[in-house]
Amino acid sequence: MKTQRKYAGTERYPVIAWQRTGSGPAFVLLHGFPENGDLWSGIVPALAPHFTLIIPDLPGAGESTYAGPHLTMEDMAAQVAEILRLEEIPEAVIAGHSMGGYTAMAFADRYPGKVTGLALVHSGAHADDEQKKETRSKSIALLRKGGKDAFVRQMIPGLFSAGYRAAHPGVVARQTERGLQLDAGAMIAFYEAMMSRPDRTEVLRRAAFPVQWIIGREDTTTPAAQALQQAAMPDVSFIALYEDCGHMSMFEQPAQLAGDLLEFGRYGNNR
Ligand code: MLT
Hints:
alpha/beta, globular, 12 helices, 271 residues, 8-stranded mixed beta sheet
């Protein structure tokens, strides 16, 4: 199936870049940090026969840009809304990996009527706690001192489970190279946006749409216990707990992830 790369722009987002492929009900896939829309390429072939996939590069990532030094989750959600407006898509299942999930939460908060389902892939509705903020501040200081290389090389391997990391060093190395493509200014903006995001557990409690939870038992970025606790909040939760999986199921367990997203997307669109 052919993938179109599409572009638009506004004053706030001079380049808005996204991919569109597939056919059927709309399904948005939001990448995390420090990624871009290509993150999803391993599972696109399984989903595209069933859904119209909209895969943005979030502002500052991939080919998308933003004006000004700062970003917020609400900015990123607004860019997603702009893409849906341009595509004339009134509603969609919104799936987000990690930071993309925080963006999906901001989208669901602001535009609940546009959400037919919310899939949180190794993500959640929580704000950063003080310890996480402190760790991010140290990383920002390192990035400001020109330490992007060290930061990315230390961070990316830790996203994968120990077993996967040992068995697939090439994938981990490729992801590290992809992470290095993001510029340090955008990394800082993303980290500041994550640090200042509010707790959105209320959005889960009042959700009129189903929520899917993709959880890695060995995920240290979004620990399973934290995700499972939040999974009790919505009226309708689909919970998938992957053994031997860290934060990166689109690489670690792609067939399982694609199958679970397919099932959830069908449910969200048929209610
Ligand atoms: C991500 O994978 O998007 C980030 O690691 C999320 C985070 O740092 O909270």
